[in-house]
Amino acid sequence: MNLVNPEARPVTAVILAGGLARRFSGEDKGLIELSRRPLAAWVAERLTGHAAEILINANRNLARYAAIGHTVVPDYLPDYPGPLAGLLSAARTAQQEWLLSVPCDTPFLPLDLVMQLHDHAIASDVRLARAADETGTQFAIMLVHRDLIPDLADFVREGGRQVQAWQARHASETIYFGDDPYAFLNLNTPDELRKAERIALRYVR
User: Fold this and answer.
1) Which of 23, 58, 172, 205 is in Cβ range 3.0-4.6 Å of 17 for a Cys bridge?
2) What 8-state DSSP symbol labels residue 203?
3) Along the 205 residues of the chain, how does pLDDT read in single tens digits?
4) What are the start-end ranges of the E strands in the chain?
5) How many separate domains does the chain show?
């Protein structure tokens, strides 16, 4: 169920869980548990009440993802073509003016992520905004206006896969989030998952 706060921004948040997670021996990464909850559920909780809609892009275990409580959208392109294809697939279902892509393995996202990206994009009159912190630009965490979806479709259809390469085609804003060193902690390995276990309790809402 997508819970909508009256203060939620007109954003469809897309949790990207459609990859192969090769560094986790092919496990479905969004369903790997952190403190007994799937990673995708952690991400959804950080977005709930802030985005008007939440979708999960997944290609395996669809029923288990649906049990998290949000609509699940598989890729319509074959062979796991990457996060841009996942965002493009979700755009077919999304009901909101803006789309926010977030990886399924970033369980400690800032609670003001949606608000900051959306409001900065509006104030700057751009159609693309992305997050950054002390480690650099988080290219995969990006807010995209629907106006850019046709160009995204062209890019993917022509074989484009790199998020950064597509973003370079458009004016954008990069918004710095510096209050929390773990805000964009990306769990790519079992060691990183163990690290997240040690700090997870501080992020329980």
Assistant:
1) 58
2) G
3) 444 576 899 999 999 998 765 556 678 999 999 999 999 999 999 999 999 999 999 999 999 999 999 999 999 988 878 999 999 999 999 999 999 999 999 999 999 999 999 999 999 999 999 999 999 999 999 999 999 999 999 999 999 999 999 999 999 999 999 989 999 999 988 899 999 999 998 998 7
4) 9-17, 33-34, 37-38, 51-58, 71-73, 98-103, 128-133, 136-145, 173-176
5) 1
72 falls within a domain: yes
Query: Count of alpha carbons within 13 Å of 185, Cβ hemisphere only?
Result: 21
Tell me the residue range of the domain where 89 lies: 9-203
Tokens of 22: 């090769």
Q: Residue 132 maps to which CATH number?
A: 3.90.550.10
For residue 188, give the amino acid letter. Answer: N
CA 85 to chain centroid: 13
Helices 83-91 and 149-157 cross at an angle (nearest 10°) of: 130
pTM of the model: 0.94
Q: Look at residues 55, 38, 12 and name the one whose alpha carbon lies nearest to residue 105.
A: 38
Q: What is the 3-state secondary structure (H, E, C) of 101-144?
A: EEECCCCCCCCCHHHHHHHHHHHHCCCEEEEEECCEEEEEEEEE
